[in-house]
TrEMBL record:
<dbReference type="GO" id="GO:0004984">
    <property type="term" value="F:olfactory receptor activity"/>
</dbReference>
<dbReference type="Pfam" id="PF13853">
    <property type="entry name" value="7tm_4"/>
</dbReference>
<feature type="transmembrane region" description="Helical">
    <location>
        <begin position="25"/>
        <end position="48"/>
    </location>
</feature>
<feature type="domain" description="G-protein coupled receptors family 1 profile">
    <location>
        <begin position="41"/>
        <end position="251"/>
    </location>
</feature>
<keyword id="KW-0716">Sensory transduction</keyword>
<protein>
    <recommendedName>
        <fullName>Olfactory receptor</fullName>
    </recommendedName>
</protein>
<keyword id="KW-1003">Cell membrane</keyword>
<keyword id="KW-0552">Olfaction</keyword>
<feature type="transmembrane region" description="Helical">
    <location>
        <begin position="197"/>
        <end position="219"/>
    </location>
</feature>
<feature type="transmembrane region" description="Helical">
    <location>
        <begin position="99"/>
        <end position="120"/>
    </location>
</feature>
<keyword id="KW-0675">Receptor</keyword>
<dbReference type="InterPro" id="IPR017452">
    <property type="entry name" value="GPCR_Rhodpsn_7TM"/>
</dbReference>
<keyword id="KW-1133">Transmembrane helix</keyword>
<dbReference type="InterPro" id="IPR000725">
    <property type="entry name" value="Olfact_rcpt"/>
</dbReference>
<dbReference type="InterPro" id="IPR000276">
    <property type="entry name" value="GPCR_Rhodpsn"/>
</dbReference>
<keyword id="KW-0812">Transmembrane</keyword>
<keyword id="KW-0807">Transducer</keyword>
């Protein structure tokens, strides 16, 4: 469609991973295997933490929420990516692109913040064990989750609206495999400097700051562990952080 002698973009096209014939099928199988592995692993975590009464603690409450987020996080991009592997027209509608960006931004920001909350949980449990049940009560966990979700929903909605109210008049080929923020901004027909600054501010607040909180928490945790007199006590205490450390490393 056209307006004021400019082409208005109604859909977007993704660039293929490779132009080599036959490689798309191999990539499809590889990505599908990784996606199914992620789904099965996260579903198992959710089921085990619900069934095993010994895992009904704030740490595993956050871990279960993280698994829900991870399922949504991967599902927001991977299924469309798999479809594009098998089709010649690797596209997505304007509305579909906006919905994908909103889901990816929301769940990505939420995952970073949840990892920081899990680090704080381990910090309180190891560095202030006598206050743990008071500080990390179930009411506090639910309140922290509810407030965080509200902030994440509003932030992702504002960021997505900010980007998709920009004029897009061509080209419509996104140099990526999903509707990510910066690759899409490069297609806008206006100066996007303010939008890029807003993206970097959000990145600092909700990616860098949680990362620094995680690092600070573990510096304090390690300091407390090293002061313990017995090697067995050190190993037992540090083992309580293993699940969180694995998740942070994988993320």
């Amino acid at each position: 469609m056209t307006s004021r002698n400019h082409t208005v973009v109604t859909d977007f096209q993704f660039l293929p991973f490779s132009s080599i014939p036959g490689i798309q099928g191999s990539l499809f199988c590889l990505v599908l295997l990784m996606y199914l592995s992620a789904l099965v692993g996260n579903v198992l975590i959710i089921v085990i933490t619900r069934v095993d009464a010994a895992l009904h603690s704030p740490m595993y409450f956050f871990l279960k929420n993280l698994s829900f987020l991870e399922i949504g996080y991967t599902t927001s991009t991977i299924p469309k990516m798999l479809v594009n592997f098998l089709t010649k027209r690797k596209g997505i509608s304007f509305l579909g692109c906006a919905m994908q960006m909103y889901a990816f931004s929301l769940l990505g920001i939420a995952e970073c913040c949840l990892l920081a909350a899990m680090a704080y949980d381990r910090y309180v449990a190891i560095c202030h064990p006598l206050r743990y049940t008071t500080v990390m009560s179930w009411n506090m966990c639910f309140l922290l989750s509810a407030v965080s979700w509200l902030i994440w929903v509003l932030l992702a909605l504002g960021q997505t609206t900010f980007i998709f109210t920009l004029p897009y008049c061509g080209p419509n080929r996104i140099n990526h495999f999903f509707c990510d923020l910066l690759p899409l901004l490069r297609l806008a027909c206006v100066d996007t400097f303010k939008n890029e600054i807003a993206i970097y501010i959000v990145a600092v607040l909700f990616i860098i700051v949680p990362f620094l909180l995680i690092v600070t928490s573990y510096i304090q945790i390690l300091h407390t562990i090293f002061k313990m007199p017995s090697a067995g006590g050190k190993r037992k205490t540090f083992s309580t952080c293993s699940s969180h450390l694995v998740v942070v490393t994988l993320f």
